[in-house]
Amino acid sequence: MSEIRIPIDLLPVDGRFGCGPSKVHANQLDHLVANAALLGTSHRQAPIRDLVGRVRAHLATLFAIPDGYEVVLGNGGSTAFWDVAAHSVIERRSAHLSFGEFGQKFVKSAGAPWLTTPHVVATEPGTRGELSAVDDADVYAWPHNETSTGVMAPVERVAGASDDALVLVDATSAAGGIDFNAANVDVYYFAPQKNFASDGGVWFALMSPAALERVERIDTSGRYIPEFLSLQRAVENSRLNQTLNTPSITTLLLMEAQLEWMLGLGGLTASADRTRQSSSALYQFAESHELLSPFVSHPDHRSPVVVTIDVDEKVDAGDITRVMREHGVVDIDPYRKLGRNQLRVATFVGIEPADVDRLIASIGFVLDELAS
Q1: Most exposed of 88, 135, 138, 170 (fewest Cβ within 10 Å)?
Q2: Radius of gyration over every alpha carbon of the chain, rounded to an integer in angstroms
Q3: For the residues 26-53, what does the mean pLDDT come to?
Q4: Annotation: CATH topology of 14-24+268-371
Q5: What DSSP designation does 182 have?
């Protein structure tokens, strides 16, 4: 492959488009430095507890949580929360919508030996099924956004489900970038390294009164629950603005700055408008270019925060990503386990729509060069 040089005027100002840890703003780093004295101090004392309290309050405002809902946090990420849910939320059996890698991982956790085998509606990557009521299910679960494939699912109650059934939604790559009604879900849980442009080491959950009651009931039922996986312990600590073990203070400070910026934009609706603007531009580009096509064929199922684009077999998508990386545009490779000739681009709220336009121009230039 001959050397390809992308004209500098086509290149994004910031080339970070990864769907894993996301772009961190300079103002977040400034906030971190300004509060560096908090690093290395006790999370049981007022300065850190106040920080946790501010983050919880900002999340409650951003998501406009209904009366009685609480913002709970705990140690670990979404992977830990799947095991937390298996121990502390599912009473007997769960029903799952599985349409990618991360939905399937929760299914595996929900197959714990003290639970009945979960009911699963699974579809091929790039597609999405629908959940119907299941007689013995006390939890219905699915991802709001499947990070591995770029498929989105709505946050809504399952028609015909029993009155005491809970809705659990994995929102790690969706939270803060897709608008929804928090009253439609009982546990909306996420790690903060996507739209919140933060680091790992903690999970957050918006929890309804019904979910809080369920968790407390299971906690006193005699079921063995390791303390680290006890959602009741996380609830009790969160009410004190702390966690069971020391949280990442860096994560909380980066998140605080991002939340303040998002609220300044106009909150969740404005943030969702921003991700939709960026993703729409990429989908239109993919539909109009002869060598590209959106991986998710159903327009209503396409994610506004993770855009997956198939590349015609005439061109190796790996060549595109290599050239882009040489020019400082990074992490637009496909999900590693999907195995497709594909590009995957994050359009999280912190990514500038103008940089997405420049990314499109750069990819178009590289495609022309590779196809010539």
Answers
A1: 135
A2: 21
A3: 97
A4: Aspartate Aminotransferase, domain 1 (3.90.1150)
A5: G
